[in-house]
Amino acid sequence: MTLAARKQAPIYTGTRIPSPIPSVLQVDPVLREEGDILEVNFGPNHPSTHGVLRLIVELNGERVEGVEAVIGYLHTGFEKNMEQKTWWKAITYPERIDYLSFQINELAFVLAIEKLLGVEPPPKATWMRTLLCELSRIHSHLIWLGTGALELGAISLLWYCFRERDAVLDLFELVTGVRMHTRYFQAGGLAEDIPPGFFMECRKFADVFPGRVDEYEALLDRQAIWLERTKGIGLLSAEDAIALGQSGPVLRASGVDWDLRKVQPYLAYDQVDFHVPVYFNGDVYDRYKVRMDEMRESTRIVQQCLDGMPEGPWTVDDRKIVLPPRHELHTSMESLIHHFKLVTEGYRVPAGEVYVAVESARGELGCYVVSDGGSKPWRVKFRAPSFVALEATATTVAGSLVADLIAILGSLDTVMGDCDR
Amino acid sequence: MNFADVPRLTSVTEERGETTVVVETAGLREASEYLRDESGFNFLADITATDYLGWNERTVAGYWGHRGGRDINRPGSWGLAKKPEPKPKRFSVSYHLVSVVSGARRATRVRLQVWCDEGESVPSVVSVWPTADWHEREAYDLMGIEFEGHPNLKRILMDDDWQGHPLRKDYPIGGEPVRFSGAE
User: What is the DSSP string of B52-112?
Assistant: First the structure.
């Protein structure tokens, strides 16, 4: 079918969002009275709920007639904790919120601080951030693909995906010294210079990776079981997706051409060439296709970042917000004072409120920050894409089979750490 | 974009490239419907409740940055004894709205804001944007804001029988009590 023809055919007319509670699918009272409704608890410790999500599912035979998502099992109070830390210590928290696309979470908070401070990082830092965020997106999509396919029985794909994921983590380790939760971005630029040898290793990965994506796609796309279990399942129309606040791959699989990297370019996204994949059926298969295409596009961005990486400093030369170089501490009294002040009480950020949104692997990741002018944030709030994605559970699973429930839930790609914060 | 026609408008401010539209609390639903239908803000990205208890009470000393950047050679004391601007009420509830148009070249954003005190309720906007359901439950759970007309207002992140609202400024951070500390 051509693209235009697919675009015109409506997935469904009207809206399927349950009423009166948009996030809870309630069993029809007549059916509850006459039918044989069985209430089943999925989770919170179910192997295929991607963390500690509890679904209260009401089944009529194999059909899902009622569903309610219960969250909060992983709530750790990140936002409360961040209010107790100085600005630069709080940077370590966001990456633990969404532990699969950690660099992007870190970026959202750092961009918010920089917006309040009015600091412009040097170009090298901007380009390196772009590169690492795209690697992070690849990392997140690989885990999604591996676990999502595993849940539908394609076990071998998990090992392939984790092989590639390990290569990405090796790259992170090479740059930052740690594999996850890197705290490599900070207000003003990067924490350290990019080590020699990184570009070579990264290029090796970027050269080989598109071929690997093709392999994975060949493994799945020619498999009848995969197609049967993903096509036409978990439908979400564009209208419903927008009303439910869906973003990222879920929104783009429903036919909405919307990517924050294009519509409000941040970092170096307006200087690189990439394409936003859009599919129109809004089913599990299209969400899978969007993510596969995004991995290819991300690799293209990585390659362009490697080619276009500017020379120069990796962080701004402002001792009021960035630690002085280590060697200066032995010779310069001023540097020692700056170091001491920064480590003990941190820098102060002008009063104000900002909302910074970036395109994370899961969609719009927003960071709302209020400062009173002190050395600690007054309020930090993360608009977590996983939290919003789970609101669509009731709409997408309505009337589906219980076996498809897992496929649909997987296709929304939620990370419970992100959801519960 | 012009926000002068928003019903029950209190103020419109533009800061750091972000527009904040403050409306009367009672007129929130009216303003929301106007923004969705007339201005095209069909996408509610986020609802954030903020507690300003203790705001403006103590001065914040030290180095102050300004819009033009930071000058290392300025004395660090020029902002001493400065207080942030006072806020009208204790809680603010901010609604971050986006106008999502498929294939658009630019994103238009606005922050819709209402203010309320302890014990006052805010009209629910679930009927305007269904996605507000969980966002409002979160604001109720963590900040104790009552949303009038919400179909299912109960705790979402904390346990159902939890006491208090953890993100309030008067909610203690916790920790183990230590002997021999303080006046003993």
Answer: -TTTTTS-B-S---BTTB--TTS-TTTTTTB-PPP-SSSEEEEEEEEE--TT-SS-EEEEE
